[in-house]
Amino acid sequence: MGDADAGVETVKPQYEFDDAENLLFDELAKVMRLVGALLIVVGVVTLGLAALLLLKGSITTAFASVVQGISSIVIGGWTRSAASSFARISTTEGNDIPLVLGAVSDLRKIYGLQKLVLLISLGVIVLGVAMVFFAAIQ
């Protein structure tokens, strides 16, 4: 390297997806947007159901419905956010990899929340089975 190159920063070119790959991202984004919107609608309806259950005095069922409703709304929002990142891949230049990484980050949030909810659900099921088992042997 000579003195002429001193202080000059080289920019590494970003990978750009081709037309077929962009079409795949567009189709995925459309489906994800719809699924995200449906999850939000299901979440809102579930919260409404929780309110009705609470009015009828079913506190534990209402609580479970609130958790499910909020989870659906949050997952729907993250799904729509990931969809936006996937959709922008085909309409921008020089940002494909950061957009993919942003979408993957949103997907990681979705699966992290689902993992937490499933582990809690499994714990409640095991606790319930244990309670029934111990009640039956006494």
What does this entry look like structurally?
The chain has one domain (17-137). Helix 1 (19-55) runs antiparallel to helix 2 and helix 2 (59-89) runs antiparallel to helix 3 (96-137). By secondary structure, the protein is mostly helical. The chain is elongated and about 80 Å long. It has helices at 19-55, 59-89, 96-137.
Q: Which descriptors would you attach to this protein?
A:
138 residues; mainly alpha
The proportion of strand residues reads under 5%
DSSP E strands, number = 0
Structural class: mainly alpha
Along the chain, the helix and strand elements come as: HHH
- Number of helical elements: 3
Major sheet, described briefly? none
Span between N and C termini?
84 Å
- How helix-rich are the residues, as a percent range? over 70%
In total, the number of domains comes to 1
Parts with pLDDT < 50 across at least 5 consecutive residues = none
Rounded mean pLDDT is 89
Gross geometry: elongated
Radius of gyration: 23 Å
Outline:
This protein is mainly alpha-helical and 138 residues long.
